[in-house]
Amino acid sequence: MKSILITGGAGFIGSHTSLLLLEKGYKVFIIDSFINSSDKSLERISAILKKQGINIEDRLYFIKGDLRKPSDIEKAFEMSFKFKNPIRAVIHFAGLKSVYDSVKDPLNYWENNINGTINLLKVMEKYSCKNIVFSSSATVYRTQANKLLKEDDICEPVNPYGNNKLTIENILKDIYKSEPSQWRIASLRYFNPVGAHESGLIGENPMGTPNNLYPRITQVAIGKINEIKIYGSDWQTSDGTGVRDYIHVLDLAEGHLLTLDYILKENPQILTLNLGTGKGTSVLEFINTFETVNKVKVPFSFVERRQGDNAFVVADNSLAKSILNWIPNRNIKDMCRDGWNWQLKNPNGY
Ligand code: NAD
Ligand code: WQD
Fold it and tell me: Cα angle at 191 between 185 and 192, to 5 degrees?
């Protein structure tokens, strides 16, 4: 039974990935500070597995801790050594993720995201664990009109959050180069993760008013926000609204599992992979699908373009598909249905 450390495992993507790893028989150590999540997600993970008849006794351990404190990270490694099942690999989700906040308070973002990651990598070195899957983002790319983004396209982030992600990718490249026969590293560039587990027990739990389209749609549908303000109607797209590559969080979780299995079985290497569906959906198409699938109204109006926005951000996902044998097979309707189920069951989050 492999031991895996999941940083940020109580968060949106981390909770779905932790659940999947537990379903597949891994031993999971989670470290999370709850700065953007709640311990309820961990209770819910246990509840889902119990319902499925899956025993997680001695397989799920939690450390409330902050990556900015190395001793918190060491606790997880020490625990795994005590159990004589040392942590084999880390999936590193922990980080602050709001573009808006990163522009307002860049130092906080650099401090949390970069210092936290450096501490993690140092502790990993100390305990001779040199296998890591990192949550990067499509936000690192310089976007290009109506062209699918490929891993070797130019990266040129336009905000502190994106700069953090690219910097961490570069740190990972540097440590790989320093010991290429030792490290197994994957940076996964996610596109726009949405949806929720079909049980409606875990999902995205934004603190305060969300900035992203999808949680805004569910909050409008449930009556917490009056309407969606669509940022621009004059983009060079089929209907004039922005096009994105929305990906179901469960497909993303499966991408992590396959990446983990892949890097652990292959020779040491460093990989960068896009995790997106390869299909673009406009804001209007998304709202229309949400209304049709869930039989609810999502009022909207058009406003000015948002600063820093782009017309079209869609993945070329052929590399991840071929290397991992990964097939993201949940469509926009599934994303709309599952996220709404989560919102209805948890109108105020956890
Ligand atoms: P999330 O905020 O739900 O999860 C991140 C978790 O990390 C939270 O539980 C938070 O409490 C924890 N955390 C933050 N800083 C920490 C620290 N210093 N120590 C310990 N725990 C800490 O976000 P998410 O949507 O699940 O995203 C996970 C990762 O994927 C993030 O790194 C994010 O930047 C990246 N990502 C997210 C998206 C997206 O749109 N959701 C897209 C691309 C990349
Ligand atoms: C999607 C589309 C908006 C809100 C962001 C980050 C990115 C990544 C994912 C982490 C765009 C439009 C949105 C609204 C709108 N996160 N929109 N009205 O900007 O693609 O990506 O989240 O890595 O780094 O930048 O996602 O959901 O904000 O926007 O019209 O109220 O919806 O213009 O076309 P984005 P989003």
Answer: 135
